[in-house]
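Collaborator request, handled under Task 6.
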Amino acid sequence: MKNFAVLSSRYSIEQTDPVNIPDDGGFQDLRQDEYRNYGSEIRFLKNYKMFRDTRNTFLIGVRVYDGKNNKK
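Structure tokens returned to the collaborator:
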């Protein structure tokens, strides 16, 4: 079983004009993003032989995930 989580935030100052317009030091916007993502995964892996020496693999798994990304 594998569990994972991303708990982070990002603060950045961005120019609101299109990228092809030079920055004249005018108005800029503060972006505050929060990321809260959780998950769990379980796998079953089985190697087996079939028809002489042909090697095969059987894999089955389940993943549960919940993600909340809040962009302001």
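The cover message to the collaborator said: "Residues 16 and 28 are 6 Å apart (CA to CA). The two ends are 34 Å apart (CA to CA). Please let us know whether this matches your experimental observations."
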